[in-house]
Design a protein that fits this description.
Shape: globular
Helix content: 25-40%
Strand content: 15-25%
CATH class of the largest domain: Alpha Beta
Number of helices: 10
Structural class: alpha/beta
CATH architecture of the largest domain: 3-Layer(aba) Sandwich
Order of helices and strands: EHHEEEEEEHEHEEHEEHEHHEHEHE
Distance between the termini: 6 Å
Number of strands: 16
Largest sheet: 8 strands, mixed
Amino acid sequence: MIYLNEKNIVEIGIDWEKLVDIIEKAVMCLGADDFAQPVKPYLRYRDLKNRIIAMPAFIGGEFNMAGIKWIASFPDNIKNGIPRAHSVVILNKAETGEPVGIIDTALLSILRTASVTGLMIRYFDKVRPLKNIHLGIIGWGPIGQYHLKMCTTLFGDRLAKISLYDLRKIDKSIIDFADKNKIVIADSWEDAYGDADVFITCTVSNASYIDKPPKKGSLQLNVSLRDYKTDIFDYVKDSIIVDDWEEVCREKTDIEMLHKEKGLQAKDTRSIIDVVVNHCMKHYAEDTPIIFNPMGMALFDIAVGAYYLEQAKKRNIGRQLR
């Protein structure tokens, strides 16, 4: 069994195109029903805004791996200089259940999250080729920072403007991006949102606030899931995409609020399978904003974990535990 930590993941490297490919292949397994993934339970105690989530899954195809992610999210940690999220992934042989890997870093979860976003961008870009892109990101923790890394790789020179916003001050000088003239530190979420062709929420907000119409024809990537008020329903009611309805319509997400307040049903949405397998994005009118709402699927963590485990074996990286 191999143990990997954040240093090992960084040593192996972050190839965004490859990671998006992995998520795409994992969605193909979803579409072929070659997976198992129970609804994940949330462990809460004392301060109920904190949670630890168990995320078990099996994914077939070329991955053929089972496992579980155990991820803690304690939002107030950042006030004490401690990362908000801590995550461990355990990987098991599909045939025997033998544990073959432990990946002890929240970075794996961050990479998975940004790669799922990258997959949605890839398919959006296929039907609505992007140029002179205005990218908006709100929330500048690790999730927001890695989303920018991913977007700068996928978009390259097509990025014309990057608007970033966070409740805390963002130091533009330390952002890892060559052309800092393209970066604008916005004064409000509205400034980052209003004219964005691609807009990504990466906050830890527990109360929604976005109540203005999105830019026509834009891609709204609701990664943090608790930012949009139900006011936006009329603008996106025919173009709502989720990763998994059963997972995302709970825990006070924006999707659950739309379900409760606006009557949104599973049949009114499309899934990530519809995007990749059924190419549903081509059926939306070009001026319709599309909104993607991912609760996070364990099988994606297992797929990305399996990739890093394979790379670690090939390159003799990590610690052998037995």
